[in-house]
Amino acid sequence: MLNMMIRFTTLCSTILACLVALPATASIIEVNTGSGSFELHANSMNIMGSTSPFLTSADLAVAHSILNDWGIDTNGKITILPVHTDAGLSFLTLIDEETGGGDTGSNATLGITSTASSSLGMYINDATQDAWQLIQPPFGSQTLGATFAWGSEGSGDGFAWTDLAYCDSFSYSFNNLDGMDNAFDENAFQFVSWGDEGWEVVSTNSFNADGTHIFTGITIPGPPAALIIAALALNRRRRRH
User: Fold this and answer.
1) pTM over 0.85
2) Which residue(s) pair with 156 in the sheet?
């Protein structure tokens, strides 16, 4: 019995040491759409080097260009993906396709409400033009309420939560303000992840009949952290038998 306790104590010490040594940044986000859940894996893009909250049209164009190069069509889509950026792990929402020239008009609108941990940063495109408000209580969570407006031919919009860490969670609520005359495809939402073959679409969704769409997300540990946590759980189960 004493030897078993010593081995367990040693294992716990090793696991804790490994967890402390792990990188502080997360790279996997688990998304739940209500009809199912899936994981999104991040990869790097050289964007968001400007000062928060300014997400430039040039940054959006870079993100679209990279995804297009991997065969992902972003025109008429709301594209959602995790990206390692100059602002840390970021959860990026690309609204329609931005080619880099900025707004070409204002014939499309989309309402978004998103709540996230108060520790996160936020970047938004057209920060001086779109109608938006970031409510930041002194503790708990913060909420972005925004009406995005853009020209659907050649321009787009977008925003991102930044500097995500393990267990940060967030929720999104979209409202298609254009009704039937909207700028989006039938499967308006596409969730993109980095996989063995590069960037790929792992899930698509449509607006509901009432023009809304809701999902939640949370950052989760990936290897090697998940393997270490699993090892601890397995050892605890064995001790009960």
Assistant:
1) no
2) none
